[in-house]
Amino acid sequence: MLGSTHEQVIVNFTEYLDQTEALLDAYIDSGSDHELFIASYIHGHYSVIAANLVHAVHCSQNQNARLAQWQKQTQHMLMQSIDDAIANNELAVCDAKDVIKMRDSLFVNNIN
Length: 112
Description:
Blueprint: H1 4-30, H2 33-58, H3 67-87, H4 93-105
């Protein structure tokens, strides 16, 4: 059975993921066509990473990990995933710059 501290980390991490996703959704709901493209591109990477991390945070061997560690892991994995995609020339240079800018803006207000 999960301890109350671990359960709280799970709840807080899920809220963190939802808040980050809401930032991307805001671009989808009210951004320009280009912002919609960029946010949708990031959202694809983010969705895969979030799903993997939600599974990992529930594992008993990760019960001592803190919220800040999960937040940093999310940021690291998203940065790596997008950097790898850019290195594989999946985006035009101008789009890659905009993806990096928007991706980085998602983590400006992280509390570590």
